[in-house]
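User: Can you help me understand a structure? I only have the sequence.
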Amino acid sequence: MRIIILAPQTEASQLKRDTKPLIDFITEKGHKADIVSITAKKSLKAGEDQDYAFSISNEIKNADAIIIIPGLGGIELGICMSLCLQHRKTTLVGYDRVKPESPLIAATNMISFFKYNEKSLGELEQVMKPFFTDIRKKKLLYRFNLMLSREMNLFLGKRSRENAVSKADYVRTLILKDMGMAEE
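Assistant: Let's start by predicting it. Here is the structure, written out as tokens:
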């Protein structure tokens, strides 16, 4: 698996020190870890900002999962989480002091949180084992086409709007409920 670590733009030695335990743990488990620095600088020239945003989106799209370490805040964190959701990537968000709480974040099962500090880095096994399991469970590998009657499509559209999810997510949720794996 390829796991991307999204990190704030910082000094290279600081970034390496902050992410070393995560990278070591991920590679020890036989996976590939890459760091992508997110910059909040406004020094990008006209046109470069669009290329920069596109490259971040592509990195997320081509990863199996995402880990966001503390330091990203405000709009950068929101945009990164939005891109992760857009590309349906299992995401683990680290926080320093206070866990970010939002009903919008709680509405998805693709994002989870963990306390990211020096003490918890020694306990990565407890955090990462369920994360790796989630990646395997939530990674969509198989395409399935479904033909519906007009009435079925209208019903499915109505239910998906009521639950504020896509039609595909609604059908996946029904399957997970039958499998006994859905969160009620």
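Now, to help you interpret it: Residues 12-28 form the longest helix (17 residues). Helices lie at 12-28, 48-61, 74-86, 103-106, 118-121, 124-138, 150-162, 167-179. Let me know which part you'd like to focus on.
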